[in-house]
Amino acid sequence: MNEEQTIAVRCTVNGEPVQALVPVRKSLVDWLRQDLALTGSHVGCEHGVCGACVVVVDGRVVRGCLMLAVEADGLVVETIEGATRSGRVAALQEAFFERAALQCGFCTSAMILQAAEFLSANPCPSRDDVRDAISGNYCRCTGYEAIVDAILAAARG
Questions:
Q1: Could you tell me if 105 and 149 lie in one domain?
Q2: Among 47, 54, 95, 105, which one is most buried in terms of CB atoms within 10 A?
Q3: Structural domain boundaries, residue 66
Q4: What tens digit of pLDDT does each residue of 104-130 get?
């Protein structure tokens, strides 16, 4: 018999309590996407390099492909869906839209969550500061200039 072991997980996802039996080897991003239908975070490289899988765990940006879902037990998880619903990233989303800082959208959710964390620590960044802050989030479509412009615009309010 090849039955996968599961562990009970209790956490908060986007402000809602969640209880589930989760396979021990399932990544956080896969659990969010496949089991909770929260598809804003994406699976790119599955090695923590591209940044498409970014979610917020206990107030910090993490790579959802490198964290097991069972590690979220007792923690607070926020996806782009939750950040959008709360309005926390509204200024960034508007700036991305106004400056055409998205094309295919694959990296956008992660870029916005990464930028939100960065701007909370550095509300008046330079262009170089922004480029450094998003350097771990790959975008294959935009060339980053519009993304940097959007983040700087959101910082200026």
A1: yes
A2: 54
A3: 6-83
A4: 999 999 999 999 999 999 999 999 999
